[in-house]
Structure formats: C-alpha cells, structure tokens
Amino acid sequence: MDSSGELVQLKLGLLDTAAPMSSAIVYGDVYRVDGAYTVATLERGSNRSLLVDTLETPAWLHHRLKHPQIDFLKGDFGDPLLMGSIRDEFDVGVVFDILLHQPPLLHTLHLMLSKVTRAICIAQPCLKEGAWKNQLVYLPGSGDAELYPLNASSPEYRVFDVNQVNHSHWIWAMTSSFLRSALAGEGFEIREEKTLEHPMLTKHWVWKGFVAERVRANESHWSNQRATPGLHTASW
Q1: If 102 and its partner were Cys, which of 82, 108, 122, 177 is the partner (CB 3.0–4.6 Å)?
Q2: String of b and e for 182-218 (b: at least 16 CB within 10 Å)?
Q3: Which CATH number fits domain 6-218: 3.40.640.10, 3.40.50.2300, 3.40.50.150, 3.10.20.310?
C-alpha cells in the first residue's frame, strides 16, 4: 500500500488518534489493500489484531505469517452467528469504506461495535449535508444520477442496480450527521472528525474520517428490547 496518498494518510491519521491501542478488530480490510491497515494497528501498539473479512489473498496470508499477533476470521461480519462466535473484546475497532455496502446497516454497525470497548475509527465517502440532517438514501433503484458517487462511471460499482443488494456494491448514501446520530445511539461520541475533498468523488460527496469513543451504555437500544410477558392491558 502506498502510504503517500491523501486518503491513506487520512486513515492512518485516524489510527494515530486512537493510539496507543492494546488490541484491535478490523472489518473488511482485504479488498485492494491486503490487510495493510490491520498491520498498521500492530505498529500502533496492538498486541492482537483480528481481521474479519469474506476475502483472503496471498499477500494477506504473507502478512499473517510474518505477524503472529494477527488473527483472521473468514466470514461476513453482518452475520450475527459469526459475530457471536467472537468471544473476545477489543480496545479499538477499524471500519474503513464498508458501511456504505451493508444492506442491514444499523444491525451490522451494532454487531461491529459490540466487540469494541474503547474507540472506533471510521472512514468513508459521505453525502454532503443538505437541507435535512441525518439523511440516509437507499441507492438501489434510485433514478437520481446526481447521487452517483464517482466522478467517472465504473462497471465495478453498480450503484443503482436494484438486484445488487449485497456488500459488493454501493447500497447507501449517508451524511456525517446520520452517522453521528447512529453512533450516539450505540453509546459512542465522535471525538475527531476529518474531511477530505477527493477527486474520485462528485461535488455531492466528500470523504470523512471519524474517531468515536464509547461513553455510555444505552439501555433503550433496540437490541435490549424484549417481548412483553403475559397479557398486556391495553389502553387504546
């Protein structure tokens, strides 16, 4: 990975802010970078770093052999059964360029954060803020060409294909205010926010970086809700 680019520097800067870290869990770090940010967590103090991803490559396997502090779990981190098999917790979580591709967005975000005890580093393209805060736009089936995130069309990123509702494609356009509120509902507060105008993106998009810290538990969170026992005496 070429560490000289602005985008790579933004992401490494987020890891620097979260450092020193005693351990790390990294989500989706193989595509195009072969686990480079997982290795970067070791350079910032992690004694154990776990990567969860559906891909593996020869270059990634080389990193694993070279660094015995790295573990790997091959599978979908949006799968609650897979995530339930991870019994450990980690000091820092790393979520780079993957939330946009998660069909069950809030559920996947909760699963990822459930393994993090202190801080989460997030970097991704965000829709620029508009008249309404907390915007989240479902892209498959959209006819609004202005929502296409890239300056140049790409056959690899089939953003508006209503059939491509999977983590290999772009599902969501979200504003940073939406992400801030979603994290707050999980008990995290953003401590640092960075913005990068990137030539890859159109004028409606911007690359954002966040470091958020766990500050509280949310007893009213949807994951804590249970069926009402017995018969409910209705007042309606």
Answers
A1: 108
A2: bbeebbbebeeebebeeeebbeebbbbbbbbbbeeee
A3: 3.40.50.150
